[in-house]
Design goal:
The chain is α+β, with helices and mostly antiparallel strands. Helices cover 35% and strands 27% of the residues. The longest helix is centred in the last third of the chain and has 26 residues.
Length: 491
């Protein structure tokens, strides 16, 4: 099997696009800007879903589902929200087609115009808060802790598989609270959930922070985020959690009677991650030979390839492999025994390397005689001969080691690419020649933020939550600053 993948060092963007397609994760569809997620890619997304869903339920959330269509009038109720999404909205204006006079052409029936146009949801705050108005009367009805798994549409002009498509899959949590303190705690808790998931499940180190006023979610009082760094030195926003204050409650008149008998507006949060995480996964760990998947997310954690010349040898290998796979099954380790006779072992090795399977076990007649297996790691390309009595324990330990190794490798890269800049010349030099996060002072104004973006294409990715107070001077204007923020070019 020939990979023919462009090297990362030659053209990172091309490498990414080719890898997503050749590793069978996704492909472009017949609908402009939309993608088909193929079974192998969807299996990874399902693993992400399952782990996140478990975490949501552990923190008291329940899943629900809300309509895909939102009346246009709902969007008009929260001004900053509609401003933030207006350019990306797809609008349904008619509900019926008809055959034209030529009997062949299909056209919109002009008589089937909707009384009120519908927005195909870019996010669900408006339809959900209209619904919450019916659910909430008293403090006894709070908190509402709801999540939905859904698709959304944002009409993107320039698209890239997983990273930016007109339709994408995500989860969006929407919670309602009696107090500001509860809502802020919820937004911060969900940020921690996302960071824990990214680091301990996806092996992607992240910086927790909050967005500048200019970069906040439309309609939010505060936007918390996790930011990751890709191998080309660009940042990727991996998840966001928003404290919405009472903006949506006031827009949709969602009040509750407090314990003191007063009518008060509800406090809100929303938070979400999307299939963009698939892009983060590919770009954080993979190499010029294909995908590199953390064992936690690999649809196949172990592939076993028989090496044989005769049917008798294959049958003997099958018997030995079954003893191993029965034990792997009990440990919930996913495996594939690839005994197809239509492809040679070398072709299979190439295929599973491209698909990022963490461990590959090869077994032939000599291994049967010696009571051994040959085990190869995808992350380091190292091989070991392992006794058959030790193989299951070895596999279990090695999967944990690979998971930790991928995180440590990504963290080492990330940490070595957080660099302080104290002048604008230094800032520009780092941006062009090193990349990564640039920790620099900023005067806190939108004007300076926009000017730096115009001059360099770098944006403020976040104000780190754990940043230290430090007197300094803005990297562009020289105005006083109380601490550094992280700039980077980003996806």
């Amino acid at each position: 099997m020939s990979k023919n993948i462009t090297k990362r060092s030659e053209d990172y963007s091309k490498w990414y696009n080719e890898l997503v397609v050749k590793a069978d994760l996704a492909e472009n569809s017949g609908v402009r800007g939309c993608m088909v997620i193929k079974p192998y890619g969807y299996a990874i997304w399902e693993k992400m879903q399952a782990e996140l869903d478990k975490k949501f339920k552990e923190t008291g959330h329940q899943n629900a589902y809300f309509p895909l269509f939102i009346p246009k009038s709902y969007f008009s109720k929260e001004a900053s929200h509609v401003d933030g999404f207006a350019k990306e909205c797809a609008v349904v204006t008619h509900y019926r087609l008809k055959t034209a006079e030529d009997g062949k052409t299909i056209e919109v029936d002009p008589e089937a115009k909707l009384e009120e146009e519908l927005i195909v949801r870019p996010t669900s705050e408006t339809i959900i808060w209209d619904t919450y108005r019916k659910w909430i009367e008293s403090y006894r009805d709070l908190p509402i802790l709801v999540n939905q798994w859904a698709n959304v549409v944002r009409w993107e002009m320039r698209t890239r598989l997983f990273l930016r498509t007109s339709e994408f899959l995500w989860q969006e949590g929407h919670t309602a609270h009696a107090t500001e303190r509860e809502a802020v705690a919820e937004a911060e808790q969900m940020l921690d959930v996302y960071a824990d998931f990214a680091e301990n499940f996806m092996a992607i180190p992240v910086v927790k922070g909050f967005k500048t006023e200019n970069e906040r979610f439309a309609g939010a009082i505060e936007t918390y985020c996790i930011e990751a760094l890709m191998q080309d030195g660009k940042a990727l926003q991996a998840g966001t959690s928003h404290f919405l204050g009472q903006n949506f409650a006031k827009a949709f008149d969602v009040k509750f009677t407090s314990q003191e008998g007063k009518q008060e507006y509800v406090w809100a949060t929303s938070w979400g991650v999307s299939t963009r995480l698939m892009g983060a996964l590919v770009m954080t760990h993979s190499d010029d030979n294909g995908l590199v998947l953390p064992p936690n997310l690999a649809p196949i954690q172990v592939v076993i390839v028989p090496i044989h010349k005769t049917d008798e040898q294959l049958e003997a290998i099958r018997e030995e492999v079954k003893k191993v796979t029965d034990r792997l099954k009990k440990l919930n380790i996913s495996f594939k025994f690839d005994d197809r006779t239509t492809f040679k072992p070398g072709w299979k090795f190439n295929e599973y390397e491209l698909k990022g399977v963490p461990l590959r076990i090869a077994i032939g007649p000599k291994d049967l005689e010696n009571g051994t297996f040959e085990v190869a790691r995808r992350d380091t390309f190292t091989k070991e001969i392992v006794a058959k009595d030790d193989i299951v324990t070895y596999v279990q330990d090695m999967l944990e080691e690979i998971q930790a190794n991928l995180f440590n490798k990504a963290k080492e890269y990330r940490d070595s690419h957080i660099t302080e800049a104290n002048s604008f010349e230094e800032f520009k030099d780092l941006l062009e020649n090193k990349g990564g996060f640039i920790a620099a002072h900023w005067d806190g104004t939108i004007e300076t933020e926009e000017k730096i973006k115009d001059l360099t294409k770098a944006t403020i990715r976040c104000i780190p939550i754990d940043r230290k107070e430090e007197d300094g001077f803005c990297v562009l204007t020289g105005a006083p600053s109380k601490g550094r923020v992280l700039f980077a070019k980003a996806y």
